[in-house]
Amino acid sequence: MIVSLGLGAINCGALVSLCGAIVPDEIVNMRPCRLVTDSREIVEGDLFCALKGLEDGHKYAAEAEKRGAIAVLAEKKTDARLPHIIVPSVRKALGDWAIGVTEDDALLRIGITGSVGKTTVKDAIASMLAPHFSVHATYGNFNNDLGLPFTLLSAPRNTEIAVCELGVNHKGEMRELSRILRPHISVITCIGHAHIGAFGTREAIAAEKLDILAYAKENGAVFVPEGESLLSCIPPRGIRRISTLPFGEKEYTAHGLPYPFEDTARSFALGYAAKIGEHLSLSEKAIHAGLERILSLETHRHESVLGGFHFIDDGYNASPESMLGALRYLASQSGKRRVAVLGDMLELGEQSSSYHRAIGRFAARHAERLFFFGAYAKDYEAGARAEGMRQIQDPRENLNGFSVIKGDRETLAAQILSALQEGDVILFKASRALQVEKIIDHIKKQIS
Fold this sequence. Notes:
By secondary structure, the chain is an alpha/beta fold. The protein has helices at 12-19, 61-66, 90-102, 118-129, 147-153, 173-181, 196-199, 202-210, 249-254, 264-279, 284-295, 320-331, 352-366, 377-386, 409-419, 436-447, and strands spanning 2-4, 34-36, 47-49, 71-74, 84-86, 108-113, 135-137, 161-165, 185-188, 221-225, 240-244, 302-306, 309-313, 338-342, 369-372, 401-404, 425-429. The protein is 36% helix and 16% strand.
């Protein structure tokens, strides 16, 4: 990772003070231009950050020295003859460094969390505000305790608003993210079942999401979905609770926008972006223009047409809520048949089988042809059977019904392609680890 330092550009002496580091006197006035975590990317003047990940960055400090690093942020001495800034935890030190940015209340900070839709809502809010303020937003979904500091440290010096995505997958993470960001405005998109295996219940997920307010600024605002009882309790300190609805046909019509039937991800994003625009006193004309821009934004769903087939790649991730939304979107498409290729939804804990059975039933009501693969394919199958859908024993048969498919990605692709009809619309949906985009690539190679 390369982080060009903007608001985070300080000399090493100031960094030592923020992080409580141990450091030799001679580097106090050194001022790095970039923070770099990969020694191969170092150029002269960079600060090398020795993170521990799949590999221990401390092993590469000497290479960073050869490439021109001026110092190394580390948890121990290395074999490099560079000045060392030694801290108990590099990850925590990066958060402390970012707090040096968020101490300045001239920077308005918006934090976005939720079980589904964080990146889409983040992009929508940034698009709404960008013509009127200098906005800096999370790149992609860099939303954890490393991604958030990187976002804040790289914000250009003229940034007025930081729009930051905050993601968690185990208890206690959100409090640390709130400590770093200290948001003026907080957004909780929804409380669903993503990562319920780590949290146990939706109530526990809601409690974790509400920790976005642990260090929120007094007299700030929190935007939550209308009717979500798990978010009805908001802590004191004058934080205003603003209930938000996704756009329905009425809202699209009121704003003179085309109605994208059942595109729930974009409908939520439009609702939150419009509310944020109103909260920051944008004019009605500016909000309308912002909504039109948001409609053209890309989402995690990627669509393409090849060989008479319409492919919908929605394999960025999967939870019960996002799976329902994707299947509704598929059902809204016009084509010869609606086809769904569904893989595992991961991190759902003890109730994984029941969630997959429920989605199997829902899928059978929203598509004519289904393919199930992965560890929970039999649960999908049980749901489809319960809904009355018949099984196609040979998945290569060009018939309506469901099939359980097995094999490597190339084999899966061949089975799916052999059963397709020209004009079919095909949804691919599973958790990120299953890499459904590679199945799509194999199908496209066989077509071309």
